[in-house]
Amino acid sequence: MSDLPVPVEHTIHARPRVDSERPGPERPIEAETDEPAAGLVPDYVRKLAWVLDDAIPIVAGRRVGIDGFLSFIPVVGEAAGFGLAATVVLAGVKAGASWPTVARMMFHTLGESLFGMIPLAGPVIAFFWKANQRNLRIIESDLRDREATRRESWKVLLVAVSMVAIGALFVLVSLAIAIYTIWQWIFG
């Protein structure tokens, strides 16, 4: 096999890569490696993330993507945006990202989709949250330094689970208070 040069803009460490060195089931990525992690994510996934999050220039050098515009279409647009964003997450799975990192990426994707359903505020959240570009950076970070990214992913997931638990507790307490109030009002 000959050394295949990897373009500098697609590498973490600019060095040629040999296809036989490409991580896969038979050769897992080590925590400390010179492997260009960016080469493990297909270009079409990078382009998709860019189109979803950064393709359209707006004022002051800011950019937005079509993901926010999809949020204007009730239910169908958000489902389409989630389906396209799942492609980025699946690319992380295929590249060998750890499961806490994949769960963290799903948290970003689901969060953007759920908040995207809020009328008027949803598209704004989608424009600025940029879950796809964020997930792309998380994949590359995980492939560069798996342990550090895993620790960070666990922290994010712990906060997310705590927020869901607190929200569920709030809903249950509110429901109990409402039922008690209605009971008192009726049977008094």
- The H-and-E topology, N to C, reads as HEEHHHHHH
- Main beta sheet strand tally, sense and closure: 2 strands, antiparallel
Supply Rg: 21 Å
What is the SS-derived class?
Answer: mainly alpha
> Which consecutive residue ranges, at least 5 long each, have pLDDT under 50?
4-36
Helical content stands at 55-70%
Instruction: State which percent range the strand residues make up.
Output: under 5%
Q: How many structural domains are formed by the residues? A: 1
- Report how far the terminal alpha carbons are from each other: 84 Å
Query: Would you tell me the overall average pLDDT?
Result: 79
Strand order of the largest sheet: 1-2
Q: Tally of extended strands?
A: 2
What would you say this structure looks like, in words?
This protein has 188 residues and is an all-alpha fold. It has one domain. The chain is 63% helix and 2% strand. The protein has a two-stranded antiparallel ribbon with strand order 1-2. Residues 4-36 have low confidence and may be disordered.
